[in-house]
Design goal:
The protein has three helices and eight strands; from the N terminus they run βαβββαβαβββ. It has 133 residues and is an alpha+beta fold. Strands 2-3-4-1-5-8-7-6 form an eight-stranded mixed beta sheet. The longest helix has 12 residues, at 14-25. The radius of gyration is 14 Å and the shape is globular. The two termini are 18 Å apart. The mean pLDDT is 95. The structure holds zinc ion.
Length: 133
């Protein structure tokens, strides 16, 4: 596993939060993207070397809607860059982690992604992401 690629934050209203985080960082988000299969609309901020992803649910069954219902707005996941996502999935399964996506799927920002279930990682949802060529 390499560096933290981004931190994902669940928000109720992307437009309102885009304003809030633009004030916080002193600059606007550089893109928004909807991932229909995940039921999310995302926006991305770059702040120095760090990247923040805001996530809003696009429907009531979205994992983000469920997260906010249960825990409120806040940090949703930490994403780590990996070089070879398939190899990393195999390695982590062998180590006993619960991988939610045995086959990596297409995520936002031109990435292949897979998630680890928070019950196997001390309550933290971990995303693995590999840049798509
Ligand atoms: Zn993410």
């Amino acid at each position: 596993m390499k560096k933290i690629e981004h931190i994902g934050i669940a928000v109720k209203n992307l437009e309102v939060s885009n304003h809030l985080f633009a004030k916080l960082f002193g600059k606007k988000h550089y893109k928004t993207e909807t991932v229909a299969s995940e039921g999310v609309k995302t926006s991305f901020f770059k702040n120095g070397p760090n990247k923040i992803e805001l996530l809003e649910a696009t429907n009531p069954n979205s994992p983000i809607a469920k997260f906010i219902e249960k825990r409120g707005e806040g940090v949703h996941h930490i994403a780590f860059a990996v070089k070879d996502i398939k190899a990393e999935i195999k390695r982590l399964q062998k180590e006993g982690f619960t991988v939610l996506n045995e086959t990596p799927k297409k995520g936002a920002d031109n990435k292949l992604v897979a998630f680890l279930h928070p019950k196997s990682t001390n309550g933290v949802l971990i995303e693995l992401c590999q840049e798509m060529q």
